[in-house]
Specification:
homotetramer; three-stranded antiparallel sheet; alpha+beta; disordered N terminus; 12 strands
C-alpha cells in the first residue's frame, strides 16, 4: 500500500481478533512495541533521511502512525484530550484531505525537528491516553483502534522497505542487521496447481478485521486454469535475463519498455554488477551474492509481465490467486518473525511465500464497494486508479497481518517493495 | 486507442464486410478517400503542426496510415514492390518495435519535409499498388487490408481530435468548419435502464471484423444494476461545478485530485471563462456558448469518477455497458456522417451517442487473449496497463467503425478526445 | 543576439547611412526585399516549424520584423494607420513587456495561422504605409526606421540559423541551397598580431547608426597582448579533440563540464560521426565531410574556453578584440553576399571572418549606459546578465550590418549560431 | 563562493598571518574549534538534512573541510599517514575532478552514515596528524594549510546559511539561537562618497594570504562616480515594493523578470506575509517583524538590479567598490563575532557592513590570471562564468576572514546568502 488501509472494519473474531478489551490492551502494546523494536537499530540520523518521494523517514512513520490514533480515536473520543503538539497535524498527516492541509510528501526528509527523542515522547503521550481509551471506549472505537493497529503494521513494513532504499543510496551501504542466507541452493522445480472453472466467492467474510477494499463478498466466474506452486525464483529469472529479457521489446508492455529504457533497467532493483560478471544484491543485511533459490524480488509489474510473456505463460488474476489459495492452502503462522530477505523457496505452503506477488488485476473497487464517510474513507478507495493488485505477503510483513483476501496495490513501475510474481496458464 | 489497431482479425461478414474483392476495392477507395476529404480543409501549415506529444500532425496521420499498408501488406505480399521512399519507414512508424527504430513521437511537428504534396504522392503511389494487390492477394492479406482500413479510420478520428487541439492552442482560434448547434435546448430527463444480474457473454462473435482485444468471447457474472439511458449532459455537469466539484477533494481519486490541482482544472477541457461569468467552449467550428443539451465531453476519467461520486452513483463497467447495449439497443447508422460536435442528447438510441464513455474498467486482456505473433501483435496488447476502457463512439468516429464490443482506451488523465460518461447504480 | 538591438540610435552618416529620404526609401526596399529573398526557398511547411524554444519559425521572423515597424513607427506616427490585424500585437511581440502580453515563445511553432500567404499580405500592407511615412516622417522617426532595418537584418541572420537547426532535426536532412566548399585545403598558419598596452577608446563614435549597447564611447586600460590573426580552424580543433578535449575536465569551466556531460557533447554542434570513424557536418547545403580550413563554428563559449585552456592561451576580451581590429583592420565589404557556411581561412582581413567570435567578456553595460525610455529601451539593456559578448560577424550576417564596435551576445551554452573563437595571450 | 577557495596563496604577513609555526598551531586550533562551536547547537538530525541541492548538511561541511586537509596536506606530506576511511574520498570531495569521482551533490542529505559522532572522530584523527605536520612541514605546505583554514572559514559561513535555509523549510521554524534586534529604529540617511576617476590599482598586494582570484594586481581606468555610504535598508526596500517593484517589468533584467514570475517572488527571500498585511522575516533566531534599519538581505542580483533601476541609480562595479573602500575605509575588526542577522545600519565604517553586496561585475579572471596546476587549481577559476561578484562580508563571515580585495561570487538568482547591495551613480 503506497497508500492504504481503511474503514468500515467490523470488529474481528478470528485468531487475530482481540476477544476483549483486555486482549486489545495486549495487542495495542504488542503492535506499538513492535514498531519501536524495528526502529531501535537505527540512529537519529538514519531515522531522519528520506531517499525518494515515495519513501518516508523512519521517525515520520513512527509519528504518523501515532497521529492516526490521536486524530481518529483520541480527539473524537475524549473531550479532555490535549494533543501533544498542535502543529503535528500538519506535519504527520499523510494524505487525508478531509483532515486539512499537510506537509509536502517529498519534503519529509528535511524535518530535523521534532527530534527522534521528541517523537518517542509523542508516542508515549498517545500510548498513555490510548490505554485509557481502550478500557472505556465504545465498541465502534475498538473497530477504529483495530484499524489503527493494522495501519501501523503496514507502516512497519514500509519502515523496512524505506530504510532499505535509503541505505542503497548510501555508497558505503550500511547494514540494518545481519541474517544468513544460503547462496548455493536451487529452488525445487515448480509444480502446477489446478484451479477449476466456475463461480468462486471472492472477498472477506466473517467478522474478523479486514480492510474495506476486501469487501463486499461477491462471486466471480473463472475459467479453469493452473497456477504455479511458488513464485519465480532468482535462478529462473537469470535465465530470462540471459535470453535478452531486458533487451527485447517484444516481451514488454509499452509503458514498461519506455520506462526500462529511460531508467536503464538491466536487472531487478537492488542488483548490481559483480566483478566476476555476475550480480550482487543489496539487502538489509548488506551486499551479498545472489541466492538462486530465493524468489525474485524488487521487480516491477512491467518486469513480471515481461517474464510471463517470455515464458509463454501469464500472471494470475487476483481472483485466481485468491481461489487457488483457498483451495491449496496458505496463511502465515503467527509465530513467524520478520525477516530481512525472503526465505529460499520450498518448504512453505504454496501461498505462504516471502514476496508480494503482482497479479494481472488492476486495483478496482469490488462490486458494491462504497468508501466510508469522512476522512477514514480516504484510506483505500481514492487510490483505485493506475495501480495493480499484489497478493500474499512478504518477509517484512508483520506476522498475523496477512490473509487470503488481502489486497496490496502499487503502481506498475514500483520496485522498492519486496515484490515478485508467479505464473499461471489457461487450461 | 491511445495508439493502436490490430491483428488476428478474421474477414468480416456483416454490413461492413466486403463480400468480395470487388467490394473491397470499393471499401478501400472509400476509406482512403475519406481521409483525404477530412484533410482537405487544412492548409499545408495546418497539416504540419503538432501541439503536444500525444497529438500528431495531419500529414503524419496521412503518411502513417499509408506506411501501414506499405509495411504490412505491400512489402510482404509483392516481391516487386518498390517503397516510395526508404526513409519513410523511420519517419512514419508509430510504435512498432519489431519493425525497427523510429522518429521520436514528440518531434513529429518539426518534419516540414516531406511536404504535404509529397505525402499526397506517397498516398497515390501506395493506392495504385494496393488496388492491384486487392485483386490478386490471398485471403489472409484481405484480413490485413481490413485491419489497415480500420486502422485508418481510427486515425481519421485522431486527425480531427488532434487538429482541434492544435487550433485551441492558437490564440486566434481558427475554425475547421462551421456547424450549427442549438445552445438553448435542455437534455431530456435521464431514465434508468435495467440490466439483470447473471452470466453475460462478452466479446465479439462471428466473422465480421473486430480488433483482437475484443476477443476471445467469454462469460462474466454480473450483479443486477441499472444504467442511464444517455450520457451526462453539459447542463448536469454545470450543477456539479456549481456545487464545488473542482474544489472538493472528497469526490476525487487521489491521482485525479493531484492532477487537477497541478493543472488548475476548473472545468472540462476546451471550456474557457466567458465575459458574463459563464463559460464558452472551443469547437472545431470555433468558440461558442455552451449547449446544455449536449453530452459533456473532453473530460478525463478523473472528472467522470468525481462527478459519479458527487452524484452518489458510479460509472458502469465495460461489461455492464456491453450487456446493457445488447439489451437496449445502439449501433450507429452507416449513413451517419462525421460531425464536429456531439448532437444534443435525446432522439438517438441509448447506446448510440456522440461521445466516448469512460467505464470503471481498466484496460486488461480478456481471459485467453493472446496477441498475434510479430509486429502486428503490438497493435493493442502492449498497451494493457494504466489505461481505462471507453465504450461507444463519438461524433468524429467514422460511420460504420463502431460496434457493441469495441474497446477504446486512454490513460485516465486524457482529455483531448471526445470523452464523456454515463452513470450506473447497483440494484 | 538571442534577444537584441536597440534605440537611442542617432541617424547614420557613413556608407551605410541613407543621406536622404530618397536613400532611405531605397534602403527600406532593399532590406525588406532581402528578407523575402531569404525566405523564398522555403515552403509553407518549412516556414511554420520551430525546432526549439530559442529558435523561431521563418514566418514568425517575417511577421515580427513587420510588427516592429507597425508598432514603433506606423502607430505612433500616423493617426490614420489601421493595423493589419489587431491580434498580431499578441502573436508577434517578441519580448517587449511595455507593449503588452504576448504569445509564449516556445509555442510559436503551433501557429499554423496566419498562413504564410497572410504574412506576405501583412508585409505588403506595412510596406505601403512605411513608404508613405518615409517620405513625410520627422527625423526622429528616420532614426527608428533605421533601427527597424537593423533589427530586420538581425532577424535575417536568425532566420538562417533557425532553419539550419530545424533541418538538422529532420532525419532526412533537407538542404536550403547548395554551395561548394573545398574540403581538402588546410588553413594557413596562425600569426600573432600585437596590441600595445595603455588606454584605448572603446565604443561607437560618429553619427552613423549603432545600437545603444555600443555606447557611450569610453576609455579602457589594456595590458599589452597579442591576438591571433584568424579564428581557430576545424583542423586545429580536431587536434584538441584527439587529445581528449571532451574527456578531460581540467580544461573546462565547471558549468561547461556539467553541460557537456549532461548533453554528451563529443564534438561541435552539427557534427556527426562518419562511417570511416571521422566526422561529417550538417550545413545549410546538406551534410558533407569536414573542411579543415574552415573556422570551427557552432561551438559554445564553454568549448571555446576549454580549447583555449588546452592550448595554454586564452580568449581575448571584447576590448582587446576591438582595439586589435582598429589597429589591424577588418570590416566586411558591402558587396559581400550571405553565404551558408564560413569561407576557408586565409585571404580575408584578420577581423573580417565568417564566424562570430566568443570573447572573455560578459555582456555588461558600458560605463554611463542608460537604456532608452519606453518599450524600445528593452531592445538590449535587459539582457545584460549571464551572457557573453561575441564580436565580428558571420557568414550569414547581412552585408553592411557589422562594424568594429558591434556587440553580439548569447548565453555561454549557445551553439546554434555560427560561433567560433580566436586565441590571445599576454605579453 | 558558490564553491571555492584557492591556490597560489603566498604565506601571509598581516594581522591574520601566523608569524611562525607556533602561531599556525594556534590558528589551526582556533579555526577548527570555531567550526565545532558553530555546529554544537545542532542535533544529529539537524546536521544530517539537506534542504536543496545548493546547500549541504552541517556534518558534510565538517567532514569536507577535514577531507581537504587530509587530501591536500596529509596525504602528499606524510608517507605514513593512514586515511581515516578510504571511502571518505568519494563522499566528501566537493567538486575536484582531478581527485576522482564523488557523491552527487543533491544527494548529500541521504548520508545518514557516517554518523555525526563518526565525523567528530574523523576531525580528531585529522587534527592530530595536522598538528604534527604543522610542526615539521616545509613552508609550501604552510601555504596550503593557510588555504585550508580559509576554506574552512568559508564553510563556516555556508554552514549557517545552509541551516538557515533548512529551518526555513520546516513548518515549525526551529531557531538556531536567540539574538535581539531593534525593530523600530530607522537607518540614517544615506550619504554619497566620491570616487575620483583615473587609474586605480586593483587586487591583493603583499604576502598576506589571499585567494588566487584576487590576483594579479593590475590597474583599471575608472570614471568619476559616487557610492552610497551604506547598503540599502529594509525600510528603503519597502518603498520599492510599495511602488510595484515586483509587478513592473520595466525595472527588471529579462532573466530576472522571468524567474521572479516563475517563482512568484513578491519580497526578499525569507520574508513571509504577516497577519497585519505587512511582513515577517525568518532568521536564525526565529521569525520576527522586519527591522527597517537593517540592510536588506537575501535578495538576488536581479532584485538588486531592479531596485537600482527603480531608484534611477545603478550598482557599483567591483572595481569602484574596491577603490571606494580603499579611500573611505572598512575592514572588520578581528574582535567581531559571528552574528545571526545583520546589525542595524549606521555606526560601522562605510565598507564594514553585515551583508555581502552585489556588484555590477561578472565574475571574470583578472588580466594575467592563471589557475594553479592540479586539483587545487579548481578552487576558483573554473567557476568564472555566469556568476556575479559580491564584495564586502556578512554577519556570518568569520571575523578576520574578509579584506578589501575579497571576491565572493554567486549566480544572479541566488538568494540564500546574506546578500544585499548599495547604490552608485556617475558624476
Amino acid at each position: 500500500m503506497q497508500q492504504n488501509p481503511a474503514a468500515r472494519a467490523p470488529v474481528t473474531s478470528d485468531a487475530r481478533r482481540p476477544n476483549s478489551r483486555f486482549d486489545m490492551l495486549d495487542r495495542y502494546r504488542a503492535v506499538r512495541g513492535a514498531t519501536e523494536a524495528l526502529a531501535a537499530p537505527l540512529s537519529a540520523e538514519d531515522q531522519t533521511i528520506q531517499s525518494m518521494p515515495d519513501a518516508s523517514p523512519t521517525k515520520w512513520h513512527r509519528a504518523h502512525t501515532t497521529w492516526f490514533f490521536e486524530t481518529f480515536v483520541l480527539t473524537p473520543q475524549r473531550r479532555d484530550y490535549r494533543p501533544f503538539d498542535t502543529r503535528y497535524g500538519y506535519l504527520f498527516n499523510s494524505y487525508y484531505e478531509a483532515v486539512g492541509p499537510r506537509h509536502a510528501r517529498p519534503a519529509r526528509g528535511i524535518l530535523s525537528r521534532p527530534s527522534v527523542d521528541e517523537i518517542a515522547r509523542y508516542r508515549a503521550h498517545v500510548d498513555r491516553a490510548m490505554l485509557d481509551v481502550i478500557e472505556a471506549a465504545p465498541a465502534e472505537f475498538l473497530t477504529l483502534i483495530e484499524l489503527g493497529l493494522n495501519h501501523e503494521q503496514q507502516h512497519q513494513e514500509l519502515l523496512l522497505t524505506d530504510i532499505k532504499h535509503a541505505f542503497w543510496n548510501n555508497p558505503i551501504r550500511p547494514s540494518y542487521r545481519a541474517e544468513a542466507v544460503p547462496v548455493e541452493a536451487r529452488a525445487p522445480t515448480m509444480q502446477w496447481l489446478d484451479l477449476p472453472g466456475g463461480i468462486h466467492e471472492i472477498g472477506h467474510r466473517g467478522d474478523a478485521f479486514c480492510f474495506d477494499n476486501e469487501q463486499p463478498v461477491h462471486r466471480v466466474l473463472l475459467r479453469p486454469c493452473r497456477i504455479g506452486d511458488r513464485p519465480t525464483s532468482v535462478g529462473e529469472y537469470l535465465a530470462f535475463m540471459a535470453d535478452g529479457g531486458y533487451e527485447r521489446p517484444e516481451f514488454w508492455l509499452s509503458d514498461g519498455w519506455a520506462m526500462a529504457q529511460a531508467e536503464q533497467w538491466r536487472a531487478p532493483f537492488y542488483w548490481e554488477p559483480a566483478e566476476d560478471g555476475g550480480w550482487r544484491v543489496h539487502t538489509l543485511g548488506g551486499t551479498r551474492p545472489l541466492a538462486p533459490a530465493e524468489p525474485v524480488s524488487h521487480v516491477s509489474y512491467y518486469e513480471a509481465a515481461a517474464y510471463a510473456q517470455w515464458s509463454g505463460k501469464r500472471l494470475p488474476t487476483e481472483f485466481e490467486y485468491e481461489g487457488a489459495r483457498r483451495r491449496h492452502g496458505g496463511g502465515s503462522s503467527p509465530e513467524r518473525t520478520v525477516r530481512i530477505h525472503p526465505a529460499p523457496l520450498g518448504g512453505a505452503a504454496p501461498f505462504d511465500q516471502d514476496v508480494w506477488e503482482w497479479t494481472l488485476s488492476s486495483y478496482s473497487p469490488y462490486p458494491g464497494y462504497r468508501a466510508a464517510v469522512g476522512a477514514i474513507g480516504e484510506y483505500n478507495g481514492k487510490f483505485m486508479s493506475s495501480q495493480m493488485v499484489l497478493r500474499g505477503r512478504s518477509c517484512v510483513t508483520p506476522p498475523g497481518h496477512e490473509r487470503a483476501t488481502y489486497r496490496n496495490f502499487f503502481p506498475p513501475s514500483a520496485r522498492w517493495q519486496f515484490s515478485g510474481f508467479r505464473l499461471a496458464e489457461d487450461l
